[in-house]
């Protein structure tokens, strides 16, 4: 029997992408609730408890309410919201984060899908901290730019809906000026950081794709390191990974600019180490689709792992 998959919140940006990716698959049964019963707690509970895997694409409070409705111990959950990313009893759904993370996801019934910013930041930071190259108390700064789809329906309307009173023609803007970015707790916890990093995110006037950047002063690290040493740590950490590629030093040195949209529509992420040996500085960069490896693609990768499928199924 094919496993039943229920997307609670399939009308949202991430939910729609997950549904589109699953509709063509013949190895699962995609089930939906009657739109007229979406707010009927009993009907939702029946769908939640009758599915093999539930993917929650909901606001945080609604995601918590959905989890509370699940009484079937066999029902597995992937939560794409922020609600459970650092919660006890939940497995962080970044399969490439450590050598054992994929096995932890496979054994879990509660998986929290990472955010797009945290996927890029943790991918760059975790191996360096784990290897001792980067001290946990290093004052990390994280910057970059994302497409406006990362802000959900409200931000999409701002950039696309000319009849919306909030519609804007601004080509680029910074945000998170209160220094309380929603991904900070998960970045600090799973990045292995002892102090909260400074986040300086921005959004551009394009739909999807992103760059996440972590600059480092090599003279502040505990070893006499060169950019090639940093690259070696990252390359070793992701050796053999299907979706995370560490770009060679030769290729990185030949790049003059890096656009954020190159990986759109994929579940891939590319990591770069920019910097020449004499500068004593590096720019670590992650390039990914904020709706792919940063959201729907990663959710399907986690789903495949939880079902015992090849993790690349439907994501090539």
Element-level helix/strand string: EHEHEHEEHEHEHEHEEEHEHEEH
- Low-confidence segments, given as residue ranges, are none
Distance between the termini: 24 Å
CATH class of the largest domain: Alpha Beta
Q: What's the CATH topology label of the largest domain?
A: Dihydrodipicolinate Reductase, domain 2
Helix content: 25-40%
Largest sheet: 8 strands, mixed
As a percent range, the share of strand residues is 15-25%
Q: Number of helical runs?
A: 10
CATH architecture of the largest domain: 2-Layer Sandwich
Number of strands: 14
Report what the structure shows.
The structure is a single chain. The protein is an alpha/beta fold. It has two domains: 4-113 and 295-307, Rossmann fold (3-Layer(aba) Sandwich), CATH 3.40.50.720; 116-290, Dihydrodipicolinate Reductase, domain 2, CATH 3.30.360.10. It is 32% helix and 20% strand. It contains ten helices and 14 strands. The protein has helices spanning 13-22, 41-49, 60-69, 101-106, 116-130, 152-160, 184-191, 227-237, 249-254, 292-307, and strands spanning 4-8, 29-31, 53-56, 76-79, 91-92, 110-112, 141-147, 172-174, 198-200, 202-204, 210-217, 244-246, 269-274, 281-288. Strands 7, 8, 9, 10, 11, 12, 13 and 14 form an eight-stranded mixed sheet that branches. Helix 1 (13-22) crosses helix 10 (292-307) and helix 5 packs parallel to helix 7. 44% of the residues are buried. The mean pLDDT is 94.
